[in-house]
Write a structure and sequence with these properties.
single chain, alpha+beta, globular, 4-stranded antiparallel sheet, 4-stranded mixed sheet, 185 residues, 23% helix
Length: 185
Amino acid sequence: MRLWRVLPLDRRASPDEPGGSLWFPRHQQGAGRHDNPELYGCLYVSEEPISAIAEQFAPFRGTGALLPSMLVRFGLPLALASLELPDEATVVDLDDPVALTAEGLRPSQVATRRRSVTQAHAAEIHAAHPDAVAIRWWSTLEASWINWTVFDRAIGELELERTTKLEVDDPGVLEAADLLGLSPG
């Protein structure tokens, strides 16, 4: 399965070091949808590049112009990483009604912006499925976009294909910006 991640990339770091495409930033987590840094680190990835890019621009939704500064985090340029996870990896698919029911969840509990709810469910899934390397769920920006929360127990299974620095004129950046009401500067 090919997955996409947008991250602040430190080109000097190896992929599994801080700033690398395969680094799980556990010590920086706590506010994200499925963050539980006391239990695990996680990567937020998407099945489509547009979703991964749009998730990074969501805080700027409707603020006006797409600015080059929106492509920088922690002083590092944002980059799009293509990752590969084996198709046979165990994933808890919350986009599947059967799995949703098995977990005792309703769609409104998956898509809520209330992090105390989503983080608690992620912790329960992580504990109940020790073989699962990820949770699969739909984007709150566009329900047809599928996102994944990959647990750090997937470290040995994830492979980096390539990482590309994002530029303000990249087609994916422009498409994501347009969807979020950001106009090219």
